[in-house]
Amino acid sequence: DKGNHRHFMEKEIHEQPEVISHTLAHYLDFGAGVSKPLDLPFDFAKLDRLSISACGTAYLSGVIGKYWFERLARLPVDIDIASEFRYREMPIVKNSAAFFVSQSGETADTLASLRYCRKAGVPIGAVVNVRESTIARESDVILPTLAGPEIGVASTKAFTCQLSVLASLAVRAGVARGTISPEREKVLVRELSEAPRYANQVLKLDQQIEKLARELSSYKHVLYLGRDTNYPLAMEGALKLKEISYIHAEGYAAGELKHGPIALIDENMPVIVIAPHDRIFEKTVSNMQEVAARGGKVILITDKKGAEQASLQTMETIVLPDMPEIITPIVYALPIQMLAYYTAVFMGTDVDQPRNLAKSVTVE
Ligand code: F6R
């Protein structure tokens, strides 16, 4: 049931404040300001390496997870596309664990990667939305996303719930490994608990984003740029756009611009830059200037501080509230989903059932 929404995708985008909140509450005790103990088949404190594999949007949540685990818990992470992982004959590191991220829990390549690790005796955690799935069943521990059923083929709420799980686990790992003090844990838990409120505020930008989408729908190519966790988010923005609007889009690390893609820049290819005002904001600003200097059109997704300091002529600037760094990947996922959604609606594509795509990819 779509309720009063035109498409399941729209409904699922709007459900995010609620399901993110449910998911976080499963892993974090907001009142006490701590991450909840988990019954894991390994000890975060004793791990030398964590390996994550997944496909598509779930893979991109894993890339963001890597940034979190490495930064917050000083835990090295390998992140792989499952269809590569299963065949690349990765040597298994002692004292390692493996996570598999999947909404459906049935993705063939992800399952095959899980079985490769199982055979090698690696403890396995499954970040899944469907608890009765094969991937859940074959894992040692189920780390559920509490997104509820996701009907739209393009993943939205499952993605932000995957991020919510991975961020919570990274905090838990940091506490176990002694890289996060009890005071810092309290702050991080509070910051994470604020994600649903910010997500709600971002949903109110729908009219501005819808207007921008009308304009965007007349272009054939789009480039998405970001640094740090906004880099995988740029790839996710591009993936959403190509999946449902069929506009050709690429997501790049902003620093890679001058190593190739800058050759593509002209007035026919808008560049969407995801850049909250963070440590490396200035670096991303200089990338935007490079785009502008070549006649490229910039669409900037930033916060109040970023909008003030970018001092750049943009095609459009979407201003999100200032928010804690740890929740930016979760909250900034919404405007890119909304932009893809409204663009597809303008183009008249089948938003919930895009051509050639299946919700659950059970064959390789
Ligand atoms: C993108 C999308 C796909 C899935 C991928 C993995 O919007 O939905 O890229 O993320 O097929 O599916 P799951 O998560 O079910 O393993």
UniProtKB/TrEMBL annotation:
The gene is glmS. Its main location: cytoplasm. It catalyses: D-fructose 6-phosphate + L-glutamine = D-glucosamine 6-phosphate + L-glutamate. The chain holds residues 244 to 607 of 607 of the full protein. Its EC number is 2.6.1.16. Residues 40-179, 212-354 form the SIS domain. The keyword Cytoplasm applies. It is found in: Cytoplasm. This is Glutamine--fructose-6-phosphate aminotransferase [isomerizing]. The active site is at K359 (for fru-6p isomerization activity). Homodimer. It comes from Borborobacter arsenicus. GO terms for molecular function: carbohydrate derivative binding; glutamine-fructose-6-phosphate transaminase (isomerizing) activity. GO terms for biological process: amino sugar biosynthetic process; carbohydrate metabolic process; fructose 6-phosphate metabolic process; protein N-linked glycosylation; UDP-N-acetylglucosamine metabolic process. It comes from the Bacteria. Catalyzes the first step in hexosamine metabolism, converting fructose-6P into glucosamine-6P using glutamine as a nitrogen source. GO terms for cellular component: cytosol. Keywords: Aminotransferase, Cytoplasm, Glutamine amidotransferase, Repeat, Transferase.
